[in-house]
Amino acid sequence: MTFTSLAFLQSSLEQNYQQLPLVTKPADLVHGEGNEQAEIMLIGEAPGYHESVQRRPFVGRSGQLLRQTIVKVGIEEKNVYISNIIKVRPPDNRDPLPEEILAFKPYLDGEINLISPKLIVTLGRFSMAKFLPEVKVSQVHGRLHKIKWQGQVVFILPMYHPAAALRSTKLKDSFIADFAKLPKVLEFIKTTAAGEEFKETVKEALY
Ligand code: URA
Known about the structure:
This protein has helices at about 5-15, 50-55, 60-70, 100-115, 125-130, 135-140, 160-165, 170-180, 180-190, and strands at about 35, 40-45, 80-85, 120-125, 145-150, 150-160.
């Protein structure tokens, strides 16, 4: 599916809600949020309770940690777009099912193509698995990856999910340390890495 704008993508989602799992009415949908020209796109898992009430991604406890951390490391809010793998809250906040991820895939892919971010930050294992299916977050968090995705070169920086960071001091320290690298990683992509030729084998850390 090709979308000409985020507004069109969001209205298509709402118009097609009956074809989407878990969605009983358009107001169940939580759209991505942020600047269409953002250089950094953050992708989480699925909205939780607060997100589904406010219809905004990452506004509950883990969202507060995420948004505070972004500000703390000096990333401007206008340089960030935040979205989720699925745009509806799963019952009891359970993990999204493969068929749910698949149903929302055209819309997430559409957001990625419209924004065309310089860097995609994945939050947790579900969004990471979209780009790096063979690894574990604990092995690769905070390490920049350059991959080929849908024929394009994209940069992926996997991170722990902020909800996991809230459950463990050790993970929270890693989460914040990984985010602290973001401005330099972005600069590295813009000045160095983007110009380098793509090597099919480059899946290891670049930075
Ligand atoms: N967790 C997510 O993955 N996404 C949200 O929007 C909120 C919590």
